[in-house]
Amino acid sequence: MSGNSKRSRWIIRAEAAYRQFFVRYCCDRQSSLQVAEFPKSGGSWISGMVSDLLQIDFPRNRFPASRSSLFHGHVLVRFPVKNALVVWRDPRDVMVSWYFHSIVGNSHVQPSFVASCRRRSGIVDAGNVKSNMQKFVRWCFEDPYSPAFTWSDFYDYWSCQDCDVLKYEDVLQNPVDALLSLEFLSCFSGDREASVRRVVEAHSFAKQSGRRSGVEVKGAFLRKGVAGDWVNYFDSDALATLMSYAGDRMNGLGYT
């Protein structure tokens, strides 16, 4: 699995700009697909499975080249392609995973990005996750940085779009049924269930990380692969802060 830790920020930005150009003017809009997520919601994992099922290119951390492609990203824009999928995850788990990504860091993120996030958030003792969580949540909602929008902004845009929906938790619990529920796979030729089972096995957490789900490596991009881990890192103050920013939206998605 490739990452961004050793790639120039200019290259990353140029690639993002080119992707926007490519999806508007070069791709096959009928066969291409957009997958949108707020960071750390499982979108990369799900995109890998879907691209394998559809047998289309997934240009991750590189410039797109195929006219039939899956375009994954953290954006507030609906690309002009026929099908789109939005991936939701419990915002409490999102905050925990985003903390480990942006404040602790891993092999997929540039050290300069981590340093910038620590400076902007005012967090100096990165290892004290639980004691820092309230401050981190407040920073994410009051001064968002890369992406420059909040989880609530993402919800407000994508909850109104006409697209397929998956919840990370549903995919974890029963990935075969979750993927089979996607409307844009209804025209899939061949044995859909057998193909989905094959892809799910190939993209399992164990296959991708070399660890069984639930075994944590704090400095890894694929850290733990579970739902509900937020209970280990949220105290009552952090939870109250998150609910004050996003409680109604969380309830709307069933995250209570």
How would you sum up this structure, described in words?
It is a single chain. By secondary structure, the protein is α/β, with parallel strands linked by helices. The chain has 2 domains: 9-89 and 154-207, Rossmann fold; 91-147 and 212-252, no CATH class. Helix content is 47%, strand content 7%. It has 11 helices and 4 strands; from the N terminus they run H-E-H-E-E-H-H-H-H-E-H-H-H-H-H. The chain has helices at 9-25, 43-54, 91-104, 111-121, 129-142, 151-158, 168-173, 175-180, 192-202, 205-209, 236-252, and strands spanning 33-37, 70-73, 83-88, 164-167. Strands 2-1-3-4 form a 4-stranded parallel β-sheet. The longest helix is centred in the N-terminal third of the chain and has 17 residues, at 9-25.
Q: Supply the number of helical segments.
A: 11
Oligomer: single chain
Strand order of the largest sheet: 2-1-3-4
| Percent of residues in β-strands | 5-15%
Q: Concise description?
A:
The protein contains 11 helices and 4 strands, in the order αβαββααααβααααα. By secondary structure, it is an alpha/beta fold.
Keywords:
256 residues, Rossmann fold, 4 strands, Sulfotransferase_dom, alpha/beta, globular, transferase, sulfotransferase activity, Sulfotransferase, four-stranded parallel β-sheet, 2 domains
List the helices and strands and how they pair.
Elements lengths: L8 H17 L7 E5 L5 H12 L15 E4 L9 E6 L2 H14 L6 H11 L7 H14 L8 H8 L5 E4 H6 L1 H6 L11 H11 L2 H5 L26 H17 L4
Parallel strand pairs: 1-2, 1-3, 3-4
InterPro entries: P-loop_NTPase, Sulfotransferase_dom
Pfam family, one: Sulfotransfer_1
Family: Belongs to the sulfotransferase 1 family.
